[in-house]
Amino acid sequence: MREKWPAGPGGAQAGDAMALKLLFRELEKHLKSSSGASVVAIDNKIEQAMDLVKSHLMYAVREEVEVLKEQIKELIERNTQLEQENNLLKNLASPEQMAQFQAQVQTGGSPTGAAQPAAPVPVGTGQVPPPSQSSGTSA
């Protein structure tokens, strides 16, 4: 690149100045159009990134929903099992044991304290206590 312009009225210096002005105008147009295009390109990249984040989040949410559905299913099964055991224990308990349990529940006491029956039925074994423990009619 030249550091000095040739001297002379309107000669090569005027031509170089015109060429330089034209070059600057073209460069300015290009930069303006490029910046407009780069803004659009940046917007497109942002939109793509947001879509990617959205799809990853949706995938994670779907996985979590499946895990929660499985947990709900297991809890429903466990609840059903516990209800069946509860009904079995109610049927096996004597009226005195049921009255004692109801009294403990009403007073807020723990049914697992010292006032337990002499020989509790182990949960889930299906064993029936001997008839000698029953002190009256069964409910």
Beta-strand content? under 5%
Distance between the termini: 111 Å
The major β-sheet equals: none
Radius of gyration: 44 Å
Task: Kindly state the number of beta strands.
Answer: 0
Query: Number of helix segments?
Result: 2
How does this model look, in words?
By secondary structure, the protein is an all-alpha fold. The protein contains two helices and no strands. The longest helix has 81 residues, at 12-92. The model is unreliable at 1-8, 114-119 and 121-139 (pLDDT under 50).
Could you outline the blueprint of secondary structure elements for this entry?
Elements lengths: L11 H81 L2 H13 L32
What tags apply to this protein structure?
rod-shaped; mainly alpha; disordered N terminus; about 140 residues; single chain; 2 helices; about 0% strand
